[in-house]
Request: fold
Amino acid sequence: MQKQELKQGIKDSIPIILGYIPLGIAFGLLANKVGMSVIQATLMSVLCFTGAGQYIAIGIMQAGGAVFTIVLANVLVNLRYLLFSTSMVPYLKGKVPTAAGTLLSYGLTDETYAVAMNRYQNHAPTASYMAGLNLSSHVGWIASTLLGALLGSYAGNTDRLGLGFALPAMYICLLVFMIKRKSDVLVALSSALFCLLIGYLVPATMGNLFNIIIATVAGASLGVLIGERD
Reply:
C-alpha cells in the first residue's frame, strides 16, 4: 500500500516537474548572470525551494539591495504557506504522523498544495504520497536549476525565450483543475479582482508584498461564506 501511494505521488508530480523545468532553467540562467556560481544557485534551490522568493532574491541582488531586504521580502511573500498548511491540517490530522508531516511539508508549494488538496477530496492522505509528490517536485526544481546554471551565458537574453510566462501559465492550469463548481469560479475571480485592486491602490513597493496575502484571505473568507450557504 505504501509503495503504491509513493508511486502515485511521483506520478502526480510529473505535471508539476514539467512546469518547473523552464522556470528552474530560467532561474539558473538569471542566477548565473548576477554572479552566482553553479553551486550557489543549486544550493539556493535545495535550501530555499521557493520559486517566487528566489526570483525576488535575484531581482533585489540585481538592484544592489541588502540581504535583509531579501529575507524580509521572502518572509512576507511566503506567508501564504501559513494559510496553505493550516488548511491541510484537517485532512492530515490522525492520518499522517506529525513528525513525518512536518518534515515533508518542507516541500509544500503552490503546485504541490493544489495537486494534494485535489487528491485529498477523494483519497485519504498518507506520508508515502506526500513524500512521492513533494520530494519528486523538489528534485525536479533542483535539477532544472542546475541545468540552467550550467548553461550560463550560452542562452543570452532569456526574455526572448518566453520563459517569463511559464509561471502564470502553470498557475492557471492548476486553477482550472481545482474548479468544480460555479462557486469556485466566483471565488477565483473575486480573489483575482482583490489582488488587482490592491495592486492598483497600494504603492508598488508595498502592494507587491501584501496584495497576494490579502487577496488570499479575502477569497478564502468568501469561499467559507458561500460554502455555508450551500
Q: What stands out?
A: The chain has a mean pLDDT of 81.
